[in-house]
Amino acid sequence: MVRKTWITIGCCVALIAVLCAVTYAEKDKKECSLTAAVQAAVKALFPNAVIDKCKMDEEEMKMCEVKVKDGNNESEVKLSADGMVAEVETVETLDSLPAAVAQTFKSQGTEVTKIKKGVEYAQLKLVKLDTPITTYEGKISKDGKTIEIKVAADGTIIKQETEKKGHDKDDDNGKDDDDKGEHEKD
């Protein structure tokens, strides 16, 4: 049984390597090249998807950020160079959310403009989690302000951040997050 699993994994990795080689041969400009382990991990999560683009992030360690398209669905996967999945983000609809999470977004009394589901498989120094942590992020417009809300799978608001006009959420010009109107709950 274990031998069959390893043979199947080996065949999948080889197939993915061939497919990626053909795909990347057709492109003139490469953003990053993916290791076989990263390719296999992405294909295991999204077997029918096509890798749209990727980039290598240098944080405490090298990380690959891979964007994939599976039909009309787009997702982002963060992985280590050895293929360990750190996080998967997918765009969700209000109808696809768990009831508690959907209710939390609806209770804000405004239109939900975008919802991202983030599932963390590893944190910090990429220590694999025994149980993945699932969160949902949504952008709402309220009183002329864009507010990003991060909600746990049980519907609890984990983080609420107001975006200021003219500033990207991730571009705080060296200021602490508190300067952007961020509110986090423990």
Secondary-structure map with pairings?
Blueprint: H1 2-26, H2 36-45, E1 50-58, E2 62-70, E3 73-80, E4 85-92, H3 99-106, E5 112-123, E6 127-142, E7 145-152, E8 157-163, E9 182-184
Question: For the largest beta sheet, what order do the strands appear in spatially?
Answer: 1-2-3-4-5-6-7-8-9
Range of strand content: 35-45%
Q: What is the alpha-carbon Rg in Å?
A: 19 Å
- Please tell me the total number of domains: 2
Q: What is the molecular shape?
A: elongated
CATH topology-level fold name of the largest domain: Nuclear Transport Factor 2, Chain: A
SSE pattern, N- to C-terminal: HHEEEEHEEEEE
CATH architecture of the largest domain: Roll
Main beta sheet, described? 9 strands, antiparallel
The number of helical runs is: 3
Low-confidence region ranges: 25-30, 167-186
Short description:
The chain is built from three helices and nine strands; from the N terminus they run ααββββαβββββ. With 186 residues, it is an alpha+beta fold. It folds into two domains: 1-83, no CATH class; 90-120 and 128-186, Nuclear Transport Factor 2, Chain: A, CATH 3.10.450.
